[in-house]
Give the backbone structure.
Amino acid sequence: YQALLKDRIILYNDDINKSVIERIVLPLTTLSQKSVKPIKLLLNSPGGSVEDGQMVVDAILTSKAPIITVAMGKAMSAAFDIFLAGDRRIVYPNTVLMCHSGSASLEVQTLPQINQEADLHKAYFTRWSKWYASRTKISEKEWYDLLNTGLNRYFFPEEALKLGVIHEIIQPVSKNASKKKFKF
């Protein structure tokens, strides 16, 4: 991963967990302070900790340099949030994006504690809906309704482009095998 940093590229191919501090946030912050030239964040992740993911979102949103997020394979759950924070969002033709309301286990025992946790999740849904709507062509109400279902919402590249979730789909290189001569 370190070799890519000289080209202002950060690669993250893992679950979203506390390692994002060393592997994304610190390199991104350091590169952003050195120059305002764009930084590429290559991302392939099934998601993970929303709190750790939000650290990366904040680092991207406060970066002085433009951040290009490139989803390779998948950007799901907390990784979707990170991907969506990019100033320019790019995917490959077979990339899958997914967002959802997340999951939580309650370790509380009383009804007031359960209600408090429910209120917290409603507040999260409201915040995320507003932020998602600001970054896409999907309305805040549609995002809220989607999050409130508790279901996973998958996006393939073509739909994501129409909905403003992404800016670009990397196009395959045209390879005309009939014109190439192969020796075996």
Summary: The first strand starts at residue 9 and ends at 12. Strands lie at 9-12, 39-45, 67-76, 88-91, 96-99, 153-155, 168-169. The radius of gyration is 19 Å.
